[in-house]
UniProtKB/TrEMBL annotation:
<feature type="binding site">
    <location>
        <position position="283"/>
    </location>
    <ligand>
        <name>Zn(2+)</name>
    </ligand>
</feature>
<keyword id="KW-0862">Zinc</keyword>
<dbReference type="InterPro" id="IPR051524">
    <property type="entry name" value="BHMT"/>
</dbReference>
<dbReference type="GO" id="GO:0071267">
    <property type="term" value="P:L-methionine salvage"/>
</dbReference>
<dbReference type="GO" id="GO:0032259">
    <property type="term" value="P:methylation"/>
</dbReference>
<dbReference type="InterPro" id="IPR017226">
    <property type="entry name" value="BHMT-like"/>
</dbReference>
<comment type="pathway">
    <text>Amino-acid biosynthesis; L-methionine biosynthesis via de novo pathway; L-methionine from L-homocysteine (BhmT route): step 1/1.</text>
</comment>
<dbReference type="InterPro" id="IPR003726">
    <property type="entry name" value="HCY_dom"/>
</dbReference>
<keyword id="KW-0489">Methyltransferase</keyword>
<feature type="binding site">
    <location>
        <position position="200"/>
    </location>
    <ligand>
        <name>Zn(2+)</name>
    </ligand>
</feature>
<dbReference type="GO" id="GO:0005829">
    <property type="term" value="C:cytosol"/>
</dbReference>
<dbReference type="GO" id="GO:0008270">
    <property type="term" value="F:zinc ion binding"/>
</dbReference>
<comment type="function">
    <text>Involved in the regulation of homocysteine metabolism.</text>
</comment>
<feature type="binding site">
    <location>
        <position position="282"/>
    </location>
    <ligand>
        <name>Zn(2+)</name>
    </ligand>
</feature>
<dbReference type="InterPro" id="IPR036589">
    <property type="entry name" value="HCY_dom_sf"/>
</dbReference>
<keyword id="KW-0479">Metal-binding</keyword>
<comment type="subunit">
    <text>Homotetramer.</text>
</comment>
């Protein structure tokens, strides 16, 4: 059988996560913005399956169930069928390669109005019961703004005998109650998480700054955990504390912020150098971005993903071009040092968050 997530990480192996589902499927016409719920697993399973396949081909070692926001508070009676269908799709695709299935839960819509621990834990437990029935390989609690709710999620997921990963959607300033990233990481590990980190809300550079703070917090407390990062595929140096949702371009005008594959190679190398071994992406992270992680870390891993058959390292495929100035771009120095223009002369390079 396949090695489990903790066996892989404990041996020092790099685990490549998957990428964007909600934002990508919204662009493809299968998800409605605003609600951001994953009924596509039932309405358009082929679209979800295809996206899983593209990430697998690009090098992902984890197929996350498309269950973001799929709790009863967001989906009412549909939640159970959606969770079950999402598990089946992830398992079907994971079986075609060296990938594990991760059952995923995220923060509830009710926490910010009333911090009802019993009610919120019941919502998490409902999803967990489906994941246990469908026998997922491990569990991820992701996209939490408040460490208190993230701890509740970890406590529920620990009721199953599967490894638990948890990622918060916070930046270097910490959670919405000003609890620092280092302190958040400590609380999550003490609650029982084996893998901790951040996902979403901020781009690669900002997310790695937050990871560094989490790592320092764990070291100071003398705690051990595996580190995981899944940032946006968008550059967000101008974000405020709540990340990209407060930028005026969110969610329908983010295109000019998309990271290049070369930006992502740099991110993968920096994450690796920081000691992060579970490296993936969140909103805006397309299959070619995941392939970039796999290509950057191919020397350490000893292999390339299937999708690299259609891609020369650092642009080497361009050496066949008829135009000599394009042939000259078939080298690492060219792409590593490129300063890409946006083609929008009247637009600012940075925005002001609305909040």
């Amino acid at each position: 059988g396949k090695l489990g997530i903790l066996e892989r990480l404990e041996s020092g192996e790099v685990v490549i996560g998957d990428g964007s589902f909600l934002i990508t499927l919204e662009k493809r016409g299968y998800v409605k913005a605003g609600l951001w719920t994953p009924e596509a697993v039932i309405e358009h399973p082929d679209a979800v399956r295809q996206l899983h396949m593209e990430f697998l081909r690009a090098g992902s070692n984890v197929m996350q169930t498309f269950t973001f926001s799929a709790s009863e508070d967001n989906m009412e009676s549909k939640w159970e069928d959606v969770n079950a269908a999402a598990c089946d799709l992830a398992r079907e695709v994971a079986g075609k390669g060296d990938a594990l299935v991760a059952g995923g839960i995220c923060q509830t819509s009710i926490y910010k109005y009333h911090k009802d621990e019993a009610r919120i834990k019941k919502l998490f437990r409902q999803q967990l019961e489906v994941f246990a029935w469908k026998n997922v390989d491990f569990l991820i609690a992701e996209y939490f703004e408040h460490v208190e709710e993230a701890v509740w999620a970890v406590e529920v997921l620990k009721e199953s005998d599967r490894p638990v990963a948890v990622t918060m959607c916070i930046g270097p300033e910490g959670d919405m109650h000003d609890i620092t990233p280092g302190e958040c990481a400590v609380r999550l590990v003490k609650a029982g998480a084996s893998i901790v980190g951040v996902n979403c809300r901020f781009g690669p550079d900002t997310s790695l700054k937050t990871m560094e703070l989490m790592k320092e917090g764990l070291e100071r407390a003398g705690l051990k955990a595996h580190l995981m990062v899944q940032p946006l595929g968008f550059h967000t140096p101008d974000c405020g504390k709540e990340g990209f949702v407060d930028l005026p371009e969110y969610p329908f005008g983010l295109e000019s912020r998309v990271a290049t594959r070369w930006d992502i190679q740099k991110y993968a190398r920096e994450a690796y150098n920081l000691g992060v071994r579970y490296i993936g992406g969140c909103c805006g992270f397309e299959p070619y971005h995941i392939r970039a992680i796999a290509e950057e870390l191919a020397p350490e891993r000893g292999f390339l993903p299937p999708a690299s058959e259609k891609h020369g390292s650092w642009g080497s495929g361009l050496d066949m071009h008829t135009k000599p100035w394009i042939r000259a771009r078939a080298r690492r120095e060219y792409w590593e040092n490129l300063l890409p223009a946006s083609g929008r002369p009247f637009c600012p390079s940075l925005s002001k968050p609305d909040f």
